[in-house]
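The authors assume throughout that readers already know how a fold can be written as discrete tokens. For illustration, here is how one protein appears when written out as sequence plus structure tokens.
>
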Amino acid sequence: MNVAILTDSFPPMIDGVSRCALGYANALHEHKGGSCIVIAPRVPSVNYSYPFPVYTYKSVGLPYAEYRAGHPFIPWLVAKLKAMNVDILHVHSPFISMTLARQLRFFLNVPIIFTQHTKWSFDISRAVSVRVPQKMIAYYAHSNISTADEVWAVSRGAGEYLLSHGYRGDFVVMPNATDFPVGGVDTALLRGISSQFGLPDSVPVLLFVGRIMWYKNIRLIIEALSILNGQSFDFRMLFVGDGDDLTDAKELSACMGLSEVAFFAGTVSDRELLRAYFTRSDLFVFPSVYDNAPLVIREAAACRCPSLVVRNSSASEILEDGVSGFFAEEAAESIAHTIKAALSDSKLLKKVASNAFEQVYLPWDKAISNSIARYEEVKQAFDRKLR
């Protein structure tokens, strides 16, 4: 099976979509059952060194975050893909990449699979403040999605998000996986984290990994930490990531008297170091209701670090409260109470951590087999229509 991965977000950009696209590409390459290429906007001064080809097109930076856009059609790309006998166009964005995929399908006569990842209406509202253009962009995205031969959703919530925003077709839930391996990390990395932030061995460590944006409920985390600090509950909190609201989050944390217990580590792009952060932590706190199927939940599970999420959020779909994770309401008081209860019962915490590893951890080499099987079905159905 020869697959072209089309994505608007790819490393060095760090978000769930870019990591998912990279995960698919690596897993398809290692599967040995075909070939894979990635097509993405070009980032200046970046050399793409992967075991699979990466074709990029000229792009410009957007006026928010690190995302880029450009004119995607590359005439010579059609010849390249024909030479590779590409069977599937797998698209991870409803915007530029989906536009390119529709053009390529016309010349290649191969099906398009679109994967729904994020609640991108949030991103539209951040980029465009006027309501009419917002609606036009959303309509453009939905029109693109509706032309896909099959729609995948990374979670049930991701699919329901599409349905609630005007999509009228079917979707298949196809979960993401993680590239984190099983096993311990270098103890030197663990010691380095403890030394850098002054983490006592006897004090529990809380962790957040992701973009530091208010819509990820960062404010609720800080407010919950303030409640715990006011109750003289001993803990340390590590925020890993960057984002538009990082400066404001630091200021709020300091204003709430958390400077000695909450620390902002910035972006961690080294995957082994990131594994060390998860391994060093006792509880992963992720109350975001924006994310549909956050990879960080599976990454935490790979390191036997249980997650705290908001009840009935998309992130909670793969967890069971008190069994493989901890659920809280979307309120600072509830998050604080759940953190304290989880960390105060070491036996339960250890059991939930073990269950998370057994039930939630999903490596790419296992997930890709299901994807390839579905690729085959979509390809066969598409070919039957052409006869």
User: Anything to note?
Assistant: The longest strand covers residues 36-41. The CA atoms of residues 238 and 263 lie 5 Å apart. The mean pLDDT is 91.
